Every structure is written in structure tokens, then in C-alpha cells.
Amino acid sequence: MNAFMVSARHEMLNARRTRTANLLLVVFIGMVIASSVIGWVTNQTVTSVYQKVVADGLSSAPNPFSGVSPLYYSRNAVIYVLLIGSLMAIVLGVQATLRDRKAATADLVLSRPVGSVARLLGQLAGLGVVLAVVIGVSMSISWVIISIINGAPLGWGDTGRLVAFSALSWILLATFALLGMLTGLRSRQETTALLVPFVIWSVVAFVLPQIGTAARPVSLLNPVPAVNPTGGYFDLVSALTGPLSVTEQFKRASGIILQDSTVTGDATPSVLILLSFLVVMSIVVVSTPRARMRSGLDG
Amino acid sequence: MTTSAITTDQLTKSYGPKLALDALTLDVPVGEVFGLLGHNGAGKTTAVNVLTTLLEPTRGSAEVAGVSVTGDPRSVRRAIGYLPENVQFYDNLTVMENLRFFAQLSGLRRPDGRIRDVLRILDFEGHDRQRLGTFSKGMRQRVGIAQAILHSPSVLFLDEPTSGLDPEGVRTLRETIVRLNSEFGMTIFMNTHLRSEVTKTCTSIGILKAGRLVHHDTLERALSAFPGEDSLEAIYFQVESEPAS
């Protein structure tokens, strides 16, 4: 087994044994499941009220849920991936690289015939598998709950869309895990290793979109599209900062994939921007010199 | 066939203006237990870090097991075992999981049998399923030795191996070092500032002062030059007190 595979397996084992990471995983899976359950409860409540209203002869309009895409019930998952999933990925990423520096195990690892690129790529691959398992479990449970709500298994088309959304979620979370790995490698203190990516995440998730979409700030925390400025200064600022907000790109692409009627257009540009960030972050992380990997922490 | 396990020529390492290792020229034959003595900050750990390829030298050259540390560092790493001062592991993993990781990094394909063998050699059987979080310093040190010898290295580097150990731990470690050298033929390069340890385990010594090697000889010759119970102590302090050339 080469250093890449050994590091990947070791990372998976460590993630499994880390209490904080496990807690975040449980919360994330729980929230994604809750998203589908909330959708199901909403459906049940609205439908029962609708049936009562129709029975009383007060309305002849169709059930408001009759024309809704089955994937409507998982639309809140977009927000949970953005908020809890991103934080979970950052924590996993920071722990992956900070662990060796904090416990000085980096010297033991780097005294073995291991290249720094293989080591870091292996760690990333291990984290990637952990994230894929978490997303896979969450989406599988969502699939089951949505199928129960609809009274029939989701069709191939909708299942494919759910898989595409899972893949998109993985790209976003892997990017944040890389951000965590980077600060875990570069920070001089444990607190800054965690604080810096959280600050970057909050800027990307809240500040950058706010610059161009101040007209409708509610869109920052809810799965509704931001209003695009139609001209002038805000249009220019939005055009410049928009691509930097990977969370906005994720929301937009997810909305299109999950057939959210409020989001229109082509998801390809947003997906390409997300992939670009993933590739750039990967290159930055794996180009970390060996000396940096074994540098100790202050204090 | 090479008869030197470690050779250095004018090996120098500086951190900015600070010279940590100053033109170290050394030859440690195969099968020796070499003790590098010196005060804290004399450059002992820097020497080990360069020889184990953890640091790149600023100038000079070094070969370990016949391989250049700068020319082919990966081959050097295959040939060596390394125990750092205050060795740490992944505390949330078991002894077996920790050792399996380091064995596989060293290229061992199915290491579990070898790990059990090594734990038996170190009289540490029965601990393989325990997590390291609860281990004492002495127990960690034994796991540290285990990870260093899993892949049967020809040269073993030990950085202050007895640091922080109680007398019983020191005695056990000393016996282990002697055994690894005599039974398994490993060349051992040991950093220490405890002269008594050198007397009991080493076959040759070097004394490092402010990054410079100020004395290098076999233990036997060094002791015969200064007869008496505290002779190594005498040599050490005499050499230490001489002004650096």
C-alpha cells in the first residue's frame, strides 16, 4: 500500500475516532433528515387543511402541493449543507493537518519514505471519503423520506438530480475541508487555525453576497434567489464579487438542480466556479513544503 | 561494501545568522552505538534532524547507510529508524493502529505479524489493543522504539531517548538499545546529555559544543586516557571548558 492510500485510510480512521467531528456529522445528518421531515409535515398539514376546506365547499382550487416537484422537500438541505456541512468540513480539515503539528507526529511521519504531496493528497482523499459517506447517508435517507411522502419511489430523473446535488455538496464541502487543511498547516496557533477559516467562511457566505444583494438580505439565509441588481454600482460590485461567493454559486446551482421554481438559468457556470475553487485550493494545499508540515505551534 | 553507517563532511546547518551545526565531520562505522554528547542547544537535535532528512543542510554533505541525505532522501528514510525526543502518537488510536500506520508508511504490506513480533522483542505484548492516551512516558517510549524498528532499519537514530523516564524506564530502554545493537546488528546514533547513559551503552562518543564536534573517539580509548570512575565526566568537562577553536 502506498503512502497515499495509507494516509487516506489513516485519515478516515482518525475522523471516525474524533468526538467533535462525530458530533458534527450526527448534527449534519440529523438536519438533512429534518429537512425532509419538515417538508413531509408541511405537506401533511397543508393537505389536511386543504381537504377540510374542499370538504366544506370553501374552495375548488387544486391542492397547492399537487404540482410541486418531489425534490421540493429537500430544498432546505441546501442551507444545512451551507451552514452545518461547511463548518463540519472546516473542523475535519483543520484537525487533519493540525493534528500532526500539535502532537509533533509530523516528524515521525516525515522520517518515513513519504512524499509531502502523497501525504497531503492522501489526507484529502480520506476526508473526501468521509464527506462522501456523510452526504451519501443523508441523501439516501432523504430519498426514502421523499419517496414515502410521494407514496412511490422517486423516479430515475429525480434520483439523478438528488445524486447531482450530492456531488455538488461534496465539491463545496471538500473546498471548505481544504481551507481547514490550509489554515491547519499555516497557522501558528490552534485557535487561529480554527478561527481564520470560520471568518473566511462567514465573509464568503454572508458579506460577499450582501455587497451585491442588499436589496433582499433574506436570501442570504434562506433558499430563495438573490435579486440581481439591474445596473449601476451594485451591478458592477455584484459582477466582481459574485463568483467569489462560492456559497451563492452553490445555492444557485443547487436550486436549478433541485428544480426550485424560483431559480432559473443554467447551473454550469456556477458548477465550474465551484470546481475551480476546489482545484485551486487543492494545488495550494499540496504545494505546502515539508518544513511547514513539521513546524510546531506557538505557545 | 560500505563499512561506514554514517559519514558527514563539513556538515553545516544555520538558521539565518545562527549557526546550529558547524562543519561536522564524522564517521560512524557499521555496528557502533555512537553517543553524541553536548549541552542543551549544542546542536545535537539539529544533527539528527539533518541525518534523518527532516532538515536540509546549509552546506556540506552526509551519507547514511551509504546514501546521500540530500541526493536520495527517500532511500535514506527507508534505511533508518527514528525516535524523536518526547515521542507522541495519535492518542485516539490503539497501539496496533498507530504501529500499523507507521509500518505501512515504511512500505510493509501486511505488518500485523511483524508488529506482534516487535512488541514481543520489547516485552510489550498484550498492549496492542490499548489506546495510547492513557500511557505513561515509559510505555510511549517503548511504542516509539517499536515504530522505529518495525521495518528492520540498518541505522537507528535516538534523540534523548531517556529524557523524562524514571530509573526503571531508563534501565529497560538501555537494555533494549544494547540488544538491538548486539542481536539485530543495528547501528545506533544516540543523542544525550547524560554521560552515565553513554558509558553503559555506547561504543564510541562525540562531544558537540556550540555546533562543533570537539571530541570524537571510541569509548574505550576515551576512558583509558582518563582512568577513574568518573572519567567520561572528566573528559566531557575538560573538553567543554576548552575554548572553541
From TrEMBL, chain A:
GO terms for molecular function: ABC-type transporter activity. The chain crosses the membrane at residues 21-41, 77-99, 120-150, 162-182, 194-212, 267-286. One of its GO terms (cellular component) is plasma membrane. It comes from Cryobacterium algoritolerans. This is ABC transporter permease. Coiled coil: none annotated. Keywords: Membrane, Transmembrane, Transmembrane helix.
UniProtKB/TrEMBL annotation, chain B:
The keyword ATP-binding applies. InterPro entries: AAA+_ATPase, ABC_transporter-like_ATP-bd, ABC_transporter-like_CS, P-loop_NTPase. It holds the Pfam family ABC_tran. It comes from the Bacteria. Residues 6-235 form the ABC transporter domain. Keywords: ATP-binding, Nucleotide-binding, Transport. Transmembrane segments: none annotated. PROSITE patterns: ABC_TRANSPORTER_1, ABC_TRANSPORTER_2. The keyword Transport applies. One of its GO terms (molecular function) is ATP hydrolysis activity. Belongs to the ABC transporter superfamily. PANTHER family: ABC TRANSPORTER, ATP-BINDING PROTEIN. This is ABC transporter ATP-binding protein. It comes from Cryobacterium algoritolerans.
